[in-house]
Amino acid sequence: MTDKFDKEPADATPSAAVSKDGGAVPPEAIKAIPVRHYGRWVSGVVVLALVALLVNAFATAEKIQWQAVGDYVFDSTVLAGAGRTLLISVLAMVMGVVLGVILAVMRLSKNPVTSWVAWIYIWFFRGTPVYVQLLLWFNLALIFPVLNLGPIYKDEMVDVMTPFMAALLGLGLNEAAYMAEICRAGLMAVDEGQTEASHALGMSHAKTLRRIVIPQAMRVIVPPTGNEFINMLKTSSLVYAVTYNELLRATSTIGSTSYAVMEMLFVACIWYLVMTSVFSVGQYYLERRYARGSTRNLPPTPWQKIKVNMMAFSRERGSSV
């Protein structure tokens, strides 16, 4: 008697089709039909239409003299203002980085006095607007008419606290508070075993910090530091309040005399975009340098991204055809 489990089910699919003469029939070729992403095309068309309307509105505006933008974009006064913006941004960022590292080390110190002083400094400068700090430095002569450092230096405060000095102190000291927290996060990201191993080798605390901890912390510190510098380029426009003749003040002065106020603001925007774009590219490659040796794969360069996107677009077009 045959067991019921030995029988082949009626709806069982044969492993291979057989022709009338007993030969095997090859399976049909699979036809791949790509998925149509109609939503992407619709959203893309809508976004392009909105952008075109916005560009057309500004291009056809009767009260905007676009010729004035081209005439003044390379004006000597504008170029000098852009140079001063770059100068005050670099100097303030250097001051912020140096003081930030010092404050970060003080915050991580086991000495309660230095730790609390650093915490109070960060609390004050992060808790008050940079615009108010600029005004405080610029009007410091109202509190201290004379800067008296004993036998070292003595002079009137109005002569010491120039617009450049007020701008440098206002931006640099404020940036130091933010850089202190960035540096502290980077130092804490380094494994504590690295410090213990260096101390076991007889290295001092300062040498360990300089040769072991800080180089490894740079991978964490560099990306936000680059963002802070790009933000500094834009924040430098606030020194307009202390009469420092940077880019915004230079373009505003030309606009008030030539009655091309909006046009000169566009000129300022162009130069801010140029400077931030150049330093954004530099930040990108600096991040790649300090990311070497990490477990993560390095991000592709902008040219690699363009190449990958073009290849993906070509494949999609070929599959749709």
From TrEMBL:
GO cellular component assignments: ATP-binding cassette (ABC) transporter complex
PROSITE patterns referenced in this protein's UniProt entry, alphabetically: ABC_TM1 (PS50928)
Transmembrane segments: 41-61, 81-106, 118-147, 265-286
CDD domains: TM_PBP2
MF-aspect GO terms: transmembrane transporter activity
GO biological processes: amino acid transport
Cell location: Cell membrane
Region (Disordered) location: 1-22
Ranges of compositional bias, category Basic and acidic residues: 1-10
Main location class: membrane
Family the UniProt entry places it in: Belongs to the binding-protein-dependent transport system permease family.
Subunit structure: The HisPMQJ complex is composed of two ATP-binding proteins (HisP), two transmembrane proteins (HisM and HisQ) and a solute-binding protein (HisJ). The HisPMQ-ArgT complex is composed of two ATP-binding proteins (HisP), two transmembrane proteins (HisM and HisQ) and a solute-binding protein (ArgT).
This protein's name: Histidine/lysine/arginine/ornithine transport system permease protein HisM
